Amino acid sequence: MKPGVKLSLLLLIGLMALLDSTSGCSMTNNDGVEQREALLADPSTAPARSMKDYSVEDIYAECNKTFAISMDFLNELNDTGSFPDETDKTPMCFIRCFLQKGEIVTSDDKINKEQAVALGWVKSGETIDDCLQELTGNPCERAYFLMRCVSTRHLVEGRSKDSKKR
Q: Which interval of the chain is the signal sequence (predicted)?
C-alpha cells in the first residue's frame, strides 16, 4: 500500500475510533421517530464485535476495488467532516461498504449502534440516535450522512476541547 494511502486510511480509522460529541448536527430530517428507529438494527440479531476481528487495510482495499475513492476525498473527510463533492455517489458508496464491512451498517442497511460503540466509533448510542435525523436518500447517501454527522460532531468537540486548553 502506498504511504499516502496508508496515512489517509489511518487518519480515517483514527477519526472513526475517536468520533463522538454532544453537539447537534446541522441538517435535519423531519421523518417521525418510528421512521428513524426503523433504521436501527435489532441488537439481538446484530451482536457487536471488537476491532481485533477486522483488518482495516483489508476492508479499505476491498471497498476501494468496487468504489474507488480519491485520497483527496478521504483527506477532506478527515479535515472537515464532509466530502468536497457531495453529489458524487461513488465515495458515498465507499463509506457504505466500509461501514458494512465493519458491521456498523448491516447488510440490510440498518445501523448497529452496539457495534459502533464496541468499535469506539461513538462513545454512546445517543450519538447514533441524534444522527438518525440526517439519514435521507439511498443507502449510500444514508451511510455517508451518518459518517458526516458523526465526523462533524467529533471535529466540533475536538475544536471545543482545543479552545479550552488555551
A: 1-24
